[in-house]
Each structure stands twice: as C-alpha cells, then as structure tokens.
Design a protein that fits this description.
The structure is a single chain. With 327 residues, this protein is an alpha+beta fold. The protein contains nine helices and 16 strands. It has a single domain, classed as 2-Layer Sandwich (D-amino Acid Aminotransferase, Chain A, domain 1). It has helices at 4-10, 62-76, 121-127, 168-173, 179-202, 239-247, 258-266, 283-301, 312-324, and strands spanning 24-27, 31-35, 41-45, 48-51, 54-58, 86-91, 94-97, 101-102, 105-112, 131-132, 135-136, 146-152, 155-156, 205-216, 222-225, 234-238. The radius of gyration is 19 Å and the shape is globular. 39% of the residues are buried. The mean pLDDT is 92.
Length: 327
C-alpha cells in the first residue's frame, strides 16, 4: 500500500475551509454547503474531522474518501427506491445536490451494543439503566454483542453543542416532526440499513450502526441528504475476526472514525472531562487515520483508492461555474 509517503506529503495540504463569497453558505462539522441564486447547490466535503462533537483538525484525503464513498452508496439507494439528493460529483471533494430543508432529527440504526460517546448504546447501557431513546435494552449483554433486533434511536441536531438522544414519543410530543413523516424516515432508515448490511457482509464487513439525515424538498418529498454509510456516519468491523476477538474480550477490528476516537482516548482524553480532544491529535494519528479511510473505501467498494492532491483553487473554480450556470 504505497500511500504513506503521499499522505505525509499531504499533511500540510489538506482541504479545511472554502471561502466563496458569491453564494449563501452553511458550514457543518465536515461539509461546506453552498446555495446559488440559480437554484443550484454544492457540497464541499473537507478533510476536517470531528469526534465527541469537537473539531480536532484534518486528515489527508478524508474528504475524497467520504465524497466518493457516499456517491457509491447513494447510487445503490435506487435499488431499494429510497430517494436522495445527489445529482453529480464533478470533483473528488465536491457534490452537486438537490436542495432540501433538513428535518431536525437524525435517525440512528444500531445492530450492536457498543460505542464510546455519551450518546452511544454502551454508554446508555452502563449509565442510564439499559435505556436509550425510550427503549430498554436486554439484560446481561456484554459490550460489542449483537442486539436481538435492530434499534432505532433518534437524536436531536444541535446547532451548537452536542446532539442528544431522544425518543419517538418525545419527538412527536415536541412537534419536531409529524407522525407520518417520522414513520417514513424510520422506514427509509431500516431499509437502507438492511440493504447496506447485506452489501457489507458480502465484502467481509459488519455494519454495526449508522446515522441518517433527511430533508424535505420544495415539493415536500422526504429525501436522504448529507452522506450515507461512510466511515464518518457508520461503524464497520471486520467480520472474520469479530467472534474470536469478542470471545477474548478484545475490541473488534474496526474501519471507521471510531479508530480516531480510540486513539485519542488511549492518549489520555476523558469523555467526561472539559478538555478538548484536539490537544491529543498528532500527525502520526492523522497519517494512520488516512490509511484507515483508504482501506475502508477499498474494502467496501472493491475499487482502488488513488489519493489525489487537490487545492482550494480547483474547488472554487467548480463553484464559480456552478454559480454562473443557467437557471
């Protein structure tokens, strides 16, 4: 895998922020969203990385992996009749998408008892009487064991601060979304998870859990937005070593952002402290994480990942062309 030297060379050339004044914009943890007067919308997937709801820096080529992998998965959603926002990917870090107003919740689907964050099923199992989002998890389970069935555990979408787990009953009681819309979002989420889980299994991977974001188009259609089944939104384990490592009390071999979380925790970060995790994030970790992202792309798609050095200028030129396109 001849990536290490390329990754090291890219440590100072990551895509962090794009400034493009002619467009209205919204900046997320990883994505820069641009809305143009002609109705077009572009998403730039940066190399930023966020863990425990904190931005901690950048990982070389991370944006390319996320953008290409999300496009790969969005294309597969046509197989299960789930509508989505992707229109085209004109650049490794850029996607053109349909506009949609995000609904104020994320839908999390969980197949295993695991995690390290305060919204994880394992944290709830230990600290909240085995209850998460109004659901009581079975007694006597060990960390990383499979649930008897899938759990749907929504979270709020915090503009600032941390997302929080919320039950279906509270979502409806607070009027965050209506019952029919929530049920459709949950239906989409379960269909996508089952479909992706089968595809991952064919590639020797276990899809452990994932989050989905959805929005309403101007015509009122609910569509999937943001990303699907990427290393940032999903947790993957290697299937061939899962059982042996579980029996030995070891953590499963993972190919996802959890690797970054674990490195930072192992370096001394305490999730219950007031410290910011970015102080623990080293260049060695950035290189290792970049390699993990590339490996997951290859493991999931069966395609070679060829990291391409990019620059802000090439992205801004594409945005300029999108802004000038006819209405």
């Amino acid at each position: 895998m001849p990536w290490q030297s390329i990754i090291e060379d890219a440590l100072t050339r990551t895509i962090d922020r794009i400034d493009f004044p002619p467009a209205a914009r919204f900046s997320g943890k990883v994505r820069e969203n641009f809305m143009f007067d002609n109705g077009a919308m572009a998403i730039v997937v940066t190399d930023r990385v966020s863990v425990f709801d904190y931005g901690i820096g950048t990982i070389p080529f991370k944006g390319q992996v996320l953008n290409r992998l999300a496009a790969w998965w969005f294309d597969k959603l046509h197989e299960i009749d789930v509508p989505h926002h992707l229109v085209a990917t004109p650049h490794p870090n850029v996607s053109f998408v349909k506009r949609a107003a995000p609904i104020p919740i994320e839908v999390i689907v969980r197949a295993y008892l695991t995690g390290t964050t305060t919204t994880s099923s394992w944290y709830a199992y230990q600290n909240h009487g085995r209850r998460i989002c109004g659901i009581e998890m079975p007694p006597g389970m060990n960390k990383n064991e499979k649930f008897p069935g899938l759990l749907v555990t929504p979270t709020t979408k915090a503009v600032v601060g941390h997302d929080a787990n919320i039950s279906r009953a509270d979502i409806l009681a607070e009027g965050l979304v209506g019952e029919a819309l929530y049920d459709l979002a949950e239906n989409y989420a379960l269909r996508m998870f089952n479909h992706a889980s089968a595809a991952a299994a064919d590639r020797g991977l276990i899809l452990v859990d994932t989050k989905y974001e959805m929005g309403l188009t101007g015509e009122g259609e609910l569509i999937v937005i943001d990303e699907v089944h990427t290393p940032d939104s999903s947790r993957y384990w290697k299937a061939d070593t899962y059982q042996s490592r579980l029996s030995a009390g070891q953590e499963p071999e993972n190919l996802d952002k959890e690797f970054v979380r674990r490195m930072i925790v192992d370096a001394g970060y305490d999730v219950d402290s007031s410290d910011e995790p970015k102080t623990y994030f080293t260049d060695t970790m950035r290189v290792a994480a970049a390699e993990k992202y590339g490996l997951l792309f290859e493991a999931m798609t069966g395609e070679a990942f060829e990291p391409k050095l990019s620059d802000v200028g090439s992205i801004e030129r594409i945005l300029a062309e999108a802004a000038k396109a006819p209405r």
